Amino acid sequence: MTTTDSPVLRVAGRPVARYVTRPELAPRLSPRPYLHPVTTLAGTAVTELSPADHTHHLGVGVAVPDVEGHNFWGGRTYVRDRGPTELDNHGAQRHTAFQLRDPDGFVEELRWVAAGAELLRERRTVAATELTDAAWALDFTFSLTNVTAAPLSIGSPATNGRPGAAYGGFFWRARKESTAPDVFTPDREGEQEIHGTRAAWVALAGSIWTLIFAGATEQTRRDRWFVRATEYPGVGSSLAAEERLPIPPGETAVRRIVTVVADGRISRLEAASLIRKAVNA
Known about the structure:
By secondary structure, this protein is mainly β. It has helices spanning about 190-195, 220, 270-280, and strands spanning about 10, 15-20, 35-40, 60-65, 70, 75-80, 85, 90-100, 105-115, 115-130, 135-145, 150-155, 170-175, 180-185, 200-205, 210-215, 225-230, 235, 245, 250-265.
């Protein structure tokens, strides 16, 4: 499923993530670059690739279910008054080039293509930073520019009529274990309390690992969190939670998410300290 062009990110000399630029995937999975496996500094994997429950979940990346009706998420498309529907509307994110490529990060150019046309051009900046001897941070910024001559907008199943399903944007499919991970923010606990809300950060704590997600710009912090724990473990930052996100011709939408990847189960106080250090690094 991978090619030789798959750089490995390293922190303090240790490999912590592989980035697959040109995956060989079926069209209905909306082929796109992704990070997998991502691991803690101790080597515990904290991502999954094409799990049986959602084969279109691809580690860590950017996935959007509706760009002017084109599916860049994978799987079925939610159609108003019909529900999830198999459509031949899948797009692909195509790696163009690395502008910068170092052991601890890269800057990449991508083309978002569907139905033979380029809709968006993306600039993706990813960096890995050591925080402590048991935690590191993944800094992930993506900029989407409308390269068409017409306005386009990004939507989600929520904006298309399915309440609570505002997925689309940065998304991290986490490691599934025998029991669901704990979910907490600075002042809330549990999937039901946190899903669809805004929070300074969201933590997902598994058996021997913790992931802490934070929007690192003012605009990103306005986006709502998409959280799953019971059905499967995953966290995303929603581009279109309540209404479609318009991107006029030539304009750019930018988001930045910083994720702390830690060994062990981190307390709320520790999580706040680590994410503050990561965002301000």
